[in-house]
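Sequence design from tokenized structure. All designs in this work follow the same two-part layout: the structure record, then the generated sequence. An example of the structure record is given first.
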């Protein structure tokens, strides 16, 4: 018997025994899973509120993220802009390149507070649903692997947690998503997936949780909370910034600004201006 077939048979046998002791349930509806189902039942998987943003250069998430970046570039160039409560003049804005490639943006699912599908990102963030998080992140990774927009991504960087919050939670949910995305890409690209870098971005200031803040306060809360050591990013041309949920984009913008400044410091503004920084999350609030 082929070793791979034997391995699958053995895993199914162990799973059937484990299901008798501790039945697995669907992360969305709570129904007990069949032997062939993993983390989500067939009915709920068929109804996943997919965004399909991975194949669309122009989508609501990309427009929202690039609008934030454009306003930051306006400040960097010293342009006169109308006051924006969420995007005040950023510290260090003039140290980053004034031009840069368009950032692509994608998410696996739409997020709605009244939908049971919110259990997917919420379970990862607050319920230690690491297995479920990796499963759905791999699904997103396979979408990215099939998209020409993300085909040249060569570095995946998760949004970091402050060390105190990571110690209390025990893991960084954005890192779980980032590694799952890289695994999903590798499944399609025969093992040639992008590298995940976890030590590039650092959160140097502990901030309030974003979920308790109004949109106008979110960027002020995270502005200057991140720094980047870009020395390991030599020869990188397309970076994928990863978080669990895209709400206003404030945290991802703060990370993008820190990465851009770090690249400029190490490789110079001209080289930094040529690097594309795109974003991906499990879910998109919109």
């Amino acid at each position: 018997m082929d070793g791979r077939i034997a391995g699958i048979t053995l895993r199914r046998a162990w799973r059937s025994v484990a299901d008798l002791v501790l039945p697995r349930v669907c992360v969305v509806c709570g129904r007990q899973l069949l032997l062939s189902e993993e983390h989500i039942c067939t009915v709920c998987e068929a109804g996943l509120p997919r965004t399909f943003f991975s194949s669309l250069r122009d989508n609501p998430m990309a427009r929202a993220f690039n609008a934030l970046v454009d306003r930051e570039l306006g400040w960097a160039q010293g342009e006169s802009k109308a006051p924006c409560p969420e995007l005040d003049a950023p510290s260090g804005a003039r140290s980053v390149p004034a031009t840069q490639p368009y950032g692509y943006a994608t998410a696996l699912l739409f997020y709605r507070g009244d939908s049971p599908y919110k259990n997917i990102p919420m379970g990862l963030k607050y319920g230690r649903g690491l297995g479920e998080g990796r499963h759905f992140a791999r699904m997103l990774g396979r979408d990215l692997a099939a998209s020409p927009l993300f085909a040249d991504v060569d570095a995946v960087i998760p949004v970091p947690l402050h060390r105190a919050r990571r110690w209390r939670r025990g893991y960084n949910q954005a890192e779980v998503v980032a590694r799952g995305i890289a695994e999903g890409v590798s499944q399609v690209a025969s093992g040639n997936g992008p590298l995940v870098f976890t030590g590039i971005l650092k959160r140097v200031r502990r901030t309030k949780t974003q979920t308790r803040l109004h949109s106008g306060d979110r960027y002020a809360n995270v502005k200057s909370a991140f720094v980047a050591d870009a020395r390991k990013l030599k020869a990188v041309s397309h970076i994928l910034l990863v978080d669990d949920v895209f709400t206003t984009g404030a945290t991802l913008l703060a990370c993008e600004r820190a990465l851009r400044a770090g690249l400029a410091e190490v490789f110079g503004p001209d080289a930094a201006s040529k690097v594309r920084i795109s974003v991906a999350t499990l879910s998109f609030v919109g």
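Confidence is low (pLDDT under 50) at residues 79-94. We note this feature because it recurs in several other targets discussed in the main text.
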